[in-house]
Amino acid sequence: MTLKNKNLFETKTLKKLKEQGFRITKTRKALVQLLSATRKPLAPNEIFLLLNKIKSGTSIDLASVYRILDVLVENKLIHKDNQTGAYFPCQHCENCNSEEHIFIKCDACGGMEELDYHHQIFSKEFLNNLKAKNINLSNKILYLTEKNCSSCE
What we know:
Blueprint: H1 3-19, H2 26-36, H3 44-54, H4 62-74, E1 78-81, E2 86-89, E3 101-106, E4 112-115, H5 124-132, E5 137-138, E6 141-146
Parallel strand pairs: 3-6
Antiparallel strand pairs: 1-2, 3-4, 5-6
Helix pairs in contact: 1-2, 3-4
C-alpha cells in the first residue's frame, strides 16, 4: 500500500466509523494506524502485542482487538485472510461493494496486495475457468502468489 493509500485508508476508515456512530477512541485509531502501516496481514494476537508494545497512550485487551476487527470487517474496511486468520486493509477504502476479491500474496515477505476484481487483466472467462477447476477459491476470494513482490526486490 502506498503512502497515499495508507493515509486514504486511515482517513476514510475513521470517517466511516464516525458516520456509523462509533466514537474514535485512541484504541480504534491506534489499531487503524497499525493496519495502515503494514503490508503484511496481521493476526489478532500480533495486533494485540504490537499495540501494547507501541505504547500508543492506550491499553488494549485481546477481546477489544477482536471487537474492533469485527466492526472493521462488517463495514468492509478491512479483509480477513481466511487461510491464516490475519487482517489487512481494504485497498478500495470506501467502494468495497463486491464479495469477490483477488489478492496477490508475496511468498518472500508475506505482503498482500488487493487487485480490483472488475478492472484488472482478469476476464470473466478466466475467473470462471478458475472457479470451475476449484483453484484456491475461498468465499469468492482468489489468492494468487508471487515469489518476490516489488517491495522485496
